[in-house]
Write a structure and sequence with these properties.
The complex is a heterodimer of chains A (111) and B (113).
Chain A (H helix, E strand, L loop, with lengths): L2 E4 L4 E4 L4 E8 L5 E7 L6 E7 L4 E4 L2 E6 L4 E6 L8 E8 L5 E3 L3 E6 L1
Parallel strand pairs in A: 2-11
Antiparallel strand pairs in A: 1-3, 3-8, 4-5, 4-9, 6-7, 7-8, 9-10, 9-11
Chain B lengths: L3 E4 L2 E4 L5 E7 L5 E7 L5 E8 L5 E2 L10 E5 L2 E6 L8 E7 L7 E2 L3 E5 L1
Parallel strand pairs in B: 2-11
Antiparallel strand pairs in B: 1-3, 3-8, 4-5, 4-9, 5-6, 7-8, 9-10, 9-11
The chains are: A mainly beta (111), B mainly beta (113).
Chain lengths: 111, 113
C-alpha cells in the first residue's frame, strides 16, 4: 500500500542552524510533492510544491529537494528561528484531487 | 488564495449524539474536502464535496456516519453522527484544485466522552 514516512520523533535544533526534515515514500509515483506547516490548533499552511521533474525548489529560507529515484524529499530551513517551531507535513499528489499526507515531524528551534 | 472559516473550533460531545461542522469559504470553489486528523496520525481524506452532487466518500467512511451537505459554491457542512470516543479527532475543511496547494480551515477539535 502507499506509504509516506516522516521522522515521528521531534527534531530539536539550535537557532541559526539549518533544519533538515525527511519525507520517504513507497508504492507511489507522485506528480507533485508538497510541504505544509501546522501549528497547534491550526490547519496546515502550504509552504512549497515541487514537481516530479524538478530537483530543487527554493523560497526565501526554505529549500525542498525531490529525488524520485530514492523516493525521498528533503526539506531544509536555513538560519532557523524559534518562530519556525511547528509540525511540518509532507504530502504527495498524483495530479488528482487526492493527497496523501505524512504524519509530520515536529521541529523545535531552541533560542 | 482562499480564506476558510470553520466552526466550531472545538466541542466536547456525549456519546451517541451528532455534531455538525460548518465550513465557509471566501470565494467560490468547485471542490471542498473534509479531512480527519487523529492524534499522532496523518490527515486522512473523508470525502470530497461538489456542489449539486452527492459527496464522494473514501474507503472506510460512509454517508450514514459522515453526512455532508454542499448547498452552494462557498459553503459545506460535515456531520459526525452517533458519535463514539473513537471519533475524537480534529476535523478539517479544505479547498484546492487538482495537483495544486490546499487551503485549510483552522479545524474542529472534537472530543467525545
Amino acid at each position: 500500500s502507499q506509504k509516506i514516512e516522516q521522522n515521528s520523533e521531534a527534531l530539536n535544533i539550535q537557532e541559526g542552524k539549518t533544519a533538515t526534515l525527511t519525507c520517504n515514500y513507497t508504492n507511489y509515483s507522485p506528480a507533485y510533492l508538497q510541504w505544509y506547516r501546522q501549528d497547534p490548533g491550526r490547519g496546515p499552511v502550504f509552504l512549497l510544491l515541487i514537481r516530479e521533474n524538478e530537483k530543487e525548489k527554493r523560497k526565501e529560507r526554505l529549500k525542498v529537494t525531490f529525488d524520485t529515484t530514492l523516493k525521498q524529499s528533503l526539506f531544509h530551513i536555513t538560519a532557523s528561528q524559534p518562530a519556525d517551531s511547528a509540525t511540518y507535513l509532507c504530502a504527495l499528489n498524483s495530479g488528482t484531487y487526492k493527497y496523501i499526507f505524512g504524519t509530520g515531524t515536529r521541529l523545535k528551534v531552541l533560542a | 488564495s482562499a480564506v476558510i472559516s470553520q466552526k466550531p473550533s472545538r466541542d466536547i460531545c456525549q456519546r451517541g449524539t451528532s455534531l455538525t461542522i460548518q465550513c465557509q469559504v471566501d470565494s467560490q470553489v468547485t471542490m471542498m474536502f473534509w479531512y480527519r486528523q487523529q492524534p499522532g496520525q496523518s490527515l486522512t481524506l473523508i470525502a470530497t464535496a461538489n456542489q449539486g452532487s452527492e459527496a464522494t466518500y473514501e474507503s472506510g467512511f460512509v454517508i450514514d456516519k459522515f453526512p455532508i451537505s454542499r448547498p452552494n459554491l462557498t459553503f459545506s457542512t460535515l456531520t459526525v453522527s452517533n458519535m463514539s470516543p473513537e471519533d475524537s479527532s480534529i476535523y478539517l475543511c479544505s479547498v484546492g484544485r487538482e495537483g495544486e496547494k490546499l487551503f485549510f480551515g483552522s479545524g474542529t477539535q472534537l472530543s467525545v466522552l
